[in-house]
Amino acid sequence: MRFQVVDLSKKKPDGSYLFKDVSISLREREIITITGPSGVGKTTLLKCIAELVVFEEGKLYLDDKSPEQYDIPLWRTRVMYVPQRPVIMPGTPFAFHEKIRSYAALKKNRSAHEDPIEISARWGINEELWHSDWNRLSGGEMQRIMLALALSCKPDVLLLDEPTSALDSETCFLVEESLKEYACIWVTHDREQERRVAHKTLRLEKQDNGLDNRGGEAIINI
């Protein structure tokens, strides 16, 4: 597996750049963490890579094929975005799991699905929580269930927006060990977590000197 983000740029409504010329290269079971101050575009960058937000410049490739060559719905199952705070939905996590299994794009994915209930059990989620209403779950329970749903689809790349922010340290370590088996682009504000999981780090910096409108500048450390 080879994943590339090439010179990706996103503009703000005023025409200035939120970030500009971000490039990332990722291989199987490699993790790149993204850090930077609030407002620099970390979450937006993940959504652009997932083709959930329109960007003005740049290219995306998975195994040398663009999102359009896969078709966008299939791309989103193979390059999968997991938000920090899942939207509270009606019904139960199990009903949602049954619904997403029926999506045509997931059926096209060559990988067999895993059982998300078994995945989440490794992180302390009891099976009965899958049959509880979403609005009865804690933030940490929702995070783990959404991660388990994502992993069950066996994506090529996980786009993770602070995926362990609501977890205690012991559970956080368990989740981190599971995620190390995947290729991840991972937003974190936790420097210790970054040291534990990252093969490379990318920091987005604001450009506030008034001399240009480049917006966020990407700095990659290996």
Task: Give an overview in words.
The chain is α/β, with parallel strands linked by helices and 222 residues long. The protein has a single domain, classed as Rossmann fold (3-Layer(aba) Sandwich). Helix content is 32%, strand content 26%. It has helices at 42-49, 67-70, 72-78, 93-101, 104-108, 116-121, 139-152, 169-179, 191-197; strands at residues 2-11, 17-27, 31-35, 57-62, 79-82, 157-161, 183-187, 200-205, 216-221. The protein has a nine-stranded mixed beta sheet with strand order 4-1-2-9-8-3-7-6-5, with helices on both faces. Helix 8 (169-179) links the parallel strand 6 (157-161) and strand 7. The chain is globular and about 45 Å long. Residues 209-217 have low confidence and may be disordered. This is 5849_t:CDS:1.
